[in-house]
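Lab channel / #folding
Pinned by the channel admin:
"Please post every new chain as: sequence first, then the structure tokens as a reply. Keep commentary short and put observations after the output so the thread stays searchable."

First post following the new format, from NK:
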Amino acid sequence: MTWVIDAAHSQATFSVRHLMITTVKGQFKIISGQLHIDEQNPANSWVEAEADVASIDTRDANRDAHLRSPDFFDAEQFPKITFKSTKVERVSGEDFKVTCDLTMHGVTKQVTLDGEYTGQIKDTYGNLRAGMSAKATINRKDFGLNWNVALESGGVMVSEHVKIEIDLSTINKAETTEAAANA
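Reply from TO:
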């Protein structure tokens, strides 16, 4: 089955160490994409998604503006972060490894996420929904996000390692198309 991401009920979040002692969390408020789930043969499953870099939100307007600037994401030149799976494999039960080409800041790297398929349900409007989540840790410098400041006490302002968490609510594309046709 092919599914579309319900952005209103999904999120793509990240967290990174700040000043070596605290964690700053953020999200991309605009995400979209679709995926195909083959429960019988997960290797036939795939996902394609993107996040709008300008939608970054860390609850601090000045920091968000800096993250959109050429020092970090350079949202004007690289407006999207894209995710395209290259391999899906069942680990056990509802746990999966999803290998993808992750592109941000004009750089594409292969990343493997630990994923969990959380099931399907009919919502109150009769739409068939599926849920899934995935996590990974990346090194931001692998994607050319190199800005930093050395601290007098040692260490740096922003850690290289970024934790990514994705929680998706999806709607079955065939049912959405059929519902629209019958409206």
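NK: The longest strand covers residues 107-122.
TO: also worth noting, The chain is about 10% helix and 55% strand.
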